[in-house]
Amino acid sequence: MKRLTVCLLAVVFLMSPQQAVAQIHIPDTIKGKGFFIGQLNLAKHVIDFFLDKRDAANAAKLDSNYIGYYPEKLMFSGGIYNSGGWMKVGTDDGTFNLNSDVSDYLNLRACYRGLSMSFSMNPFNMFGNDDTEFDISFYGDKLVFDFVYQNSETMSGTIGDDDDDSETIELNKGFINRRTITLGAMYVFNSRRFSYAAAFDQTCLQKRSCGSVLLGANYLYNRIRVNFEELGNIYMKSKMLGLGIGYGYNFVMPKQWLLSVSGLAEVGVWNKSRSETTQDLADFFNLIADEDSEPISPVETYRYDRPPLIFIPRLAVVHHFGRFFAGFTSLGTMHFAKQDDESNFNMVFVSNLLFGVRL
Which pTM value belongs to this model? Predict the structure, then answer.
């Protein structure tokens, strides 16, 4: 498995570059053992300067009765990251039921005052999976962004009649490949008292239970490739953009437990689908098809005649004990679309079982 996850928690600067340059004072010499230590200290001074400005600006915006910051500046965490997906397509000719293997990886993360980087790996292929994933997440005060890419070579399942097992055909791994891209953005209305960062990246503290109305937008891309070897491939591609509203709530429970639950319900405001079949494969299908069947074209485009429905659930459970913390986070994306007699249901998810310490 070749996978690198980079999780960037953005730093918000509220002043112009000219103001920043005018106010920075860096001494000519910085104490340190050797040139490289001095350069590291210099970089730390510059980063701390901007982070101090950010924290001061955030303190004025946030309600300190509900949201606070930890005194420790450095945080390390690790855990097991996993992902997977399901797909169901219903047509007059039968039903496709497909799923990918659940992929597991070791995840390591370092964070300094909310600025963090992490990566996941599958050392020595110990989890035995060749699927590829990549994700970026940003949890700000008002804005939340997510980008998830999955390329699954382990899709398998069945095709046939749900009511008649004798007509069901097994689809083995390697026959179908699925590639999905999810790009989401969310606006938090009650950002003064409700914090996603407290639950999902543990960079701040939710002191009291609170919720917020959410406004969201999501772009979804899904591509299915069916491999017929010498005859060629079929590609089925779909794109959609959804807009919607939702609600999130952070439950602050006794003994330093935090439960965060939220969901976004969206309606597809734009969608486009396209199927591509190699010429040899299209000719083969037309040759064996019934006389009453419509001929298959190498390229076909269409749109769903009903707006697709999209649902984005999130869940986090975190427990703090002293400088340590442990928890579970999960993000899912589900969408349902219908065109004439064809229905399409897709779901992908990513989750993380984590443990960390603040220094």
Answer: 0.77
